[in-house]
Amino acid sequence: MTDGTYFVAEVGGEMVASGGWSYRATLCGSDGMTGREPASLNPATDAAKIRAIFVHPGWARRGLGSLMLAHCERQARETGFTRLEMGSTLTGAPLYHLRGYVEQERIAIPLPNGEALPVIRMTKSV
Fold first, then answer.
1. How far is CA 74 from CA 15, 32, 125, in A?
2. Bridging pattern class, strands 116-125 and 102-110
């Protein structure tokens, strides 16, 4: 969040959606995860990372996820990135596919409790 690339949408003071993008190398995960790659990406050669698009359940299916995604894509594009990449949850992948993202591979992100989170690495050119 200190990079200024994570955004929140509010309605009447209630947070209804959030999401962001990153010019850092790590595909996905929180700042507290081990193995993060904090190096800055080069817009000429690297893909910006779309991160953590969330919509409050009470506001689901109203286009807020798509709106937040479009905002993040626009911000990354204005910074010079022409390619985007994300680590999508299984439930988020259908939305991202509709928005032009293509599945590249399925990976498992190790969690602190020993479990693994299945993630789909997806890409898009803008």
1. 21, 27, 12
2. antiparallel
Using CA atoms in the order 44, 82, 49, 3, what is the torsion angle rounded to 10 degrees?
70
To which residue do tokens 């985007």 refer?
A: 84
Q: pLDDT of 19-69, one tens digit each?
A: 999 998 877 655 555 556 678 999 999 999 999 899 999 999 999 999 999
Number of folded domains that form the chain: 1
Domain CATH number, residue 53: 3.40.630.30
Instruction: Indicate whether 113 belongs to any domain.
Output: yes
Return the percent helix, strand and coil in the chain, to nearest 5.
20, 40, 40
pTM of the model: 0.87
Q: What is the pLDDT of residue 33?
A: 52
Tokens 């905002």: give the residue: 71
The Cα 22–Cα 58 span in angstroms is: 27
- What is the rounded (10 degree) CA torsion for 29, 80, 73, 107? -30
